[in-house]
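Hi F.,

I've been meaning to write this up properly since the lab meeting, where we talked about keeping a consistent format for the predictions we share between groups. The idea is simple: the sequence comes first, exactly as it goes in, then the structure tokens exactly as they come out, then a line or two of notes. No screenshots and no reformatting. I'm using this chain as the first example so we have something concrete to point to.
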Amino acid sequence: MRAQKAYNVNLRLAAMILSVMRTTDALVASRSDLLNKFGDHKPYEYKVELFYPDTFEQLNDFVINGRFDELIADAENRNREFLTATSADILKRFNEEPDGRPLILVAGSVIVGKACYAYNLRKELLKQLQAAGNHRQVKVLQLDYHNWVDVIRLLDGAALGVAKGQQDFARDDVTQLSLEQNDILIVVGTHVLSEELTQALKDEGVHPVRMFVKAAPFMKLRGNYPLTSLHVRMLREILESLKLENLSPSQAILKYRKSREQEFVDLFPRWHLADYTIEVYEPYELAILKREVWSHLTADVKKVERELGQTKSATVKEVLQYAYQHLRRLVDMLEPIVMAPRNAKVPADAVIRQFINTATPAPMETSKQNT
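Output, unedited:
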């Protein structure tokens, strides 16, 4: 749509213009002779800039030429703009329903970054409420530590104990959660769009705002192989498991095997219920993920390869083969990626920060939820 306005053409022609630009950018990034000739300049005149890399060569170019922080800043600024607009839209809806019980459901895959997004949403909602002189509170319940019945109990006025896992994630010491009149409740979890909770809320006359958080990259890797949501979530699972449980990459892949498969039954078919779909993968992340995971991946793939050659059990071999197949794919995929520098300026509220810098806690918002 930006291209349509910039070139004053219809959407079809705008899409064709963008396709030519993307193809040209990818070709220049993949050819050293063209890179030497054009450098930071484009081989065409343009009225709208494509800043996001579509190929790994373009991503490498940002790192090598010292523009990586610029890429991060552009991506996170766009995120903040979208979060601000989404929050304003949600508050407008709640203001138009003054007698309703304001509830936001944030769903998403395991280890996708949905809890981090939920706390960022809470922070922005509070900011806008306070700017308007409104003192209502915004509270978060992580459903992975509770069940759907607890949501109904909380909405009906009961107080709930806050799980230790939620306290650790939010970095606060609130032990009990309850709602005052007009408080906004954000419930985040893999199963917040389940049939049981959906029907229970309908019976209660509660009409929630539903959000679906995803990590769906669009980058082409070596050999034109696509970077997929599965790859990104596996890399995040590996880093999360290393940080919290000191698991190896193969152990992390096997740990989440069943939950990934079950999501195609329980989670993704419910996506259509969402009012908003939120993207939490950014095009700069792959260079950071490689920096954090590379040494662990390369060591573990050799270890699993040795174990495959030694085992006599068909059952063990099947399990190891599953882990090895995904480890090998991740190593091959990351091999040509240039690592991000250690001093890359990733904002404290970026979702990727939940999974990196394993010596430091996840940078959640530290202000306590009022009980």
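Notes:
Residues 54 and 274 are 27 Å apart (CA to CA).
The two ends are 44 Å apart (CA to CA).

If this format works for you, I'll send the rest the same way.

G.
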